[in-house]
Amino acid sequence: MTKPSLHEFKVLHSSFNNMAKKLDDLISNYEALHLQLEEKVAERTAQLTKVNESLKQTNERLKQLEQTLREIFENIAHDLKTPIINLEMA
Predict the structure, then answer these.
(1) Full domain range(s) for residue 85
(2) Record's InterPro entries (predicted)?
(3) What distance in Å separates the CA atoms of residue 24 and residue 31, rounded to the nearest whole number?
């Protein structure tokens, strides 16, 4: 087996340095993308929380309106039945 030359060591050294630089670049890119993703998730979570709260309020308002309508219709039904009962008794 032949002894590696100085040139081969320089090529190997250069290759390792290039590989290390590429890995550093990839890691930096990954970290930047990770931060962007976290920001988007936080932003979307805030939006969804706001929309969810709005939906809860709307749902509660609809329940109140439904109850009000139910009471109105019950009163109307009662008012319509009262004259009929009075006519039947007469």
Answers:
(1) 58-90
(2) HisK_dim/P_sf
(3) 10
Q: What's the half-sphere exposure (Cβ side, CA atoms, 13 Å) at 16?
A: 6
Per-residue confidence in pLDDT tens, the chain, 90 aa: 778 788 999 999 999 999 999 999 999 999 999 999 999 999 999 999 999 999 999 999 999 999 999 999 999 988 887 776 666 665
- Which residue in the block uniquely carries the two structure tokens 């749902």? 59
How far apart, in whole angstroms, are the C-alpha atoms of residue 15 and residue 9?
10
- Does residue 35 lie in a domain region? no
- Indicate whether 69 belongs to any domain: yes
Considering the domain boundaries, does residue 78 fall inside one? Answer: yes
Structure token pair of residue 67 = 């109850």
Residue 33 lies in a domain: no
